[in-house]
Amino acid sequence: PDSSRYWPADEYQVGTSPPSYDKQFVRDHLETLDWDKTAPGPSLPASVIERTRAKYAEALQKLAGIVVA
């Protein structure tokens, strides 16, 4: 999912942004910070890491049938 955008086809609607299975939670969080986008990047809160992990796990389950605990 890192370089691709996946979303549930049954939730797609023209003119809307469907829920996606990618690192958008990380991007959204970083946009709220006063960071000049140079290395090193800021630390991420556990909640952002967990939401991103859950989206990647959900994508893996939907695409490959593999369940990650």
Annotate the secondary structure layout.
Elements lengths: L23 H8 L14 H19 L5
Helix pairs in contact: 1-2
The radius of gyration is 14 Å
The tally of strands reads 0
Q: Output the structural class.
A: mainly alpha
How many strands, what sense, and barrel or not for the largest sheet? Answer: none
Globally, the shape reads globular
Order of helices and strands: HH
Report on this model:
The protein is globular and about 35 Å long. The protein has 2 helices and no strands. Helix 1 packs antiparallel against helix 2. Helices cover 39% and strands 0% of the residues. The chain has one domain. It is mostly helical and 69 residues long.
Give keywords.
globular, mainly alpha, 69 residues, 39% helix, single chain
